[in-house]
Amino acid sequence: MKKDLLVMAIETSCDETAVAIVRNGREIVSNIVASQIESHKRFGGVVPEIASRHHVEQITIVLGEAINAAGISYGDLDAIVVTEGPGLVGALLIGVNAAKAIAFAHGIPLVSVHHIAGHIYANRLVKEMEFPLLALVVSGGHTELVYMKEHGHFEVIGETRDDAAGEAYDKVARVLNMPYPGGPHIDRLAHEGSDTLELPRAWLEEGSYDFSFSGLKSAVINTVHNAEQRGEVIAPENLAASFQASVVEVLVAKAVRAAKEYPVKQVLLAGGVAANKGLRAALTTAFAEMEEVELVIPPLNLCTDNAAMIAAAGSVLFEKGHRTGLDLNANPGLEISVYNDL
Ligand code: KG4
Ligand code: ZN
User: Fold this and answer.
1) Which parts of the sequence bind substrate (predicted)?
2) How many angstroms is it from 93 CA to the middle of ligand 2?
């Protein structure tokens, strides 16, 4: 019988200090997330220096909680996994150094992981992956369509040329005077309004799987300012509904087209914006008609940043032989294709 694989993962790329312990790449043993959102709210976004400081304060506590909740000790671990990048360099460094210290002190192998690989592997915590597959990644920093022919092999077939989807949500929310992060607020408001405003859809050139959201964001801001100048008020719920309709329509259409062009068995949704109710519903409807493709959507707590997803990705990379030296550094510009030759 094959021995169990028990890994601990640390994620500190942005504003969540997270530690998780996962068995055999799929079974969550403990999953602790300390969010800093309250501290960043009054600045309307994540302040990198504040994020780093919070990670320093939280990391030891969160590590202890994850170990206690799992009822294990460091000696039981087969590997320690950590997010290497992309993200805020000062934030990433806290996780990287904690992981290196644990690896060194306990003689455990160190495994570095790409943050977006983690978001994609959140799906494996709910459903075994079947290849080839396509992942629609929509987070605060990334909007990408990723084709995977096998475990650990990531080919980006389309990506945003400017703002990420989550970034556009957060910027539009600011215009509507909503707190950071704005995505969930716009999502809620969108369901109270209707798609009454004419906003653009950025389809880009024929056949392109790239995205662009900055034009849409500017259109929303201009619509609000023009109305203000005329002394009119646009119902915020209609603005939210119209903005969301534009984002969702483009994301769904490009994912469906890619799923028809590539020979995929599954389409996985990933990233913080995967929590969006409008997107989840529209994708579910669109893929209900494509019987040969299975749509997988992670539960809400695994869509936003967490360490269980990093552990899931790290477990697969570990089994493919990926090991990291104790000279590991944070790498804000890390490419997701780095594991393709494993
Ligand atoms: O993946 P994530 O936790 O962090 C990054 O890796 O960027 O994503 C955070 C993003 C934020 O922009 C947030 O506004 C967005 O996900 N988000 C949402 C929803 N929940 C979170 N966007 C739209 N609708 C939601 N329900
Ligand atoms: Zn993320």
Assistant:
1) 137-141, 170, 183, 187, 276
2) 16
Substitution site in 123, 217, 304, 305 for ligand 1 pocket (most atoms within 8 Å of beta carbon): 304
Ligand 1 near 298 CB (within 6 A): no
Per-residue pLDDT of the chain (342 residues; tens, 9 = 90+): 678 999 999 999 999 999 999 999 999 999 999 998 888 888 888 899 999 999 999 999 999 999 999 999 999 999 999 999 999 999 999 999 999 999 999 999 999 999 999 999 999 999 999 999 999 999 999 999 999 999 999 999 999 999 999 999 999 999 899 999 999 999 999 999 999 999 999 999 999 999 999 999 999 999 999 999 999 999 999 999 999 999 999 999 999 999 999 999 999 999 999 999 999 999 999 999 999 999 999 999 999 999 999 999 999 999 999 999 999 999 999 999 999 999
Q: Do domains 6-120+303-339 and 130-297 have the same CATH topology?
A: yes
Q: Is 304 in the pocket of ligand 1 (CB under 6 A)?
A: yes
Q: Which CATH architecture has domain 130-297?
A: 2-Layer Sandwich (3.30)
CA dist 144 and 255 (Å) reads: 10
**Residue whose CA lies nearest to ligand 1 atom number 10:** 140
- Ligand 1: distance of its center to the CA of 272 in Å? 3
Are the CB atoms for 100 and 329 separated by under 8 Å?
A: no
Check if the beta carbon of residue 267 is closer than 8 Å to that of residue 255.
Answer: yes
Select from 3.40.630.30, 3.30.450.40, 3.30.420.40, 3.40.50.300 the CATH code of 6-120+303-339.
3.30.420.40
| Beta bridge pairs of residue 28 | 22
Tell which residue, 61, 14, 85, has the closest CA to residue 336.
Answer: 85
81 CB near ligand 1 (under 6 Å): no
For the CA of 138, the closest atom of ligand 1 is: 1
Angstrom distances, CA of residue 332 to CA of 9, 12, 141, 323, 335? 18, 12, 11, 19, 9
Distance 108 CA to ligand 1 centre (A): 33
